[in-house]
TrEMBL record:
CDD domains: CAP_ED. Residues 33-113 form the Cyclic nucleotide-binding domain. Gene3D superfamilies: Jelly Rolls. This is Crp/Fnr family transcriptional regulator. It comes from Tenacibaculum singaporense. InterPro entries: cNMP-bd_dom, cNMP-bd_dom_sf, RmlC-like_jellyroll.
Amino acid sequence: MTHPLRQHIEEIIPLTDEEFAYILSFFQPITKRKHQYLLQEGEIANKEYWVVNGCVKSYFIEDSGKEHILQFAMENWWITDYESFVKQQPSKTAIDCIEDCELLYITYENRDKLTASMHKMERFWAKKSKMGRIALQKRIVSLLQNSAKERYDQLLEQYPTLFQRVPKKMIAAYLGVSRETLSRLNS
């Protein structure tokens, strides 16, 4: 059976067995339980995670205690605090597990080494980065332009399984609405 990370990478670039073995040597597996942190606010994000199994969230909490969810990451998704990871400065967000998770991570240093030594992986991450920017732009436009109902319907259409895996209060925090509003949208 083909390794899931290899399948993921090969959606963008073809690999030989030797190339994939080399790539995999830069990654470490890790398991985390529900509610465990991958990153806490103020820490430097020195790892980028790829979700093998499970679901995590990236978020920040206002001084008032209100949570804002920036991203969910499920199977085959990448997550870190990218500003902290790239600039190697303290994180403004936290990342924790919504479910028990199996992940692979690559350190900042190893990602640098891998991309420097293997042009294919530099292309892979460039493509993933471009796709991430497109998704972020669409999310921002949706938040600014669409009604709460339209944002809810878009999320449900794009990621229907998310609604079975994530509590409603987290869906509300992602959409930027109250739980009460979410209940009205859901009915």
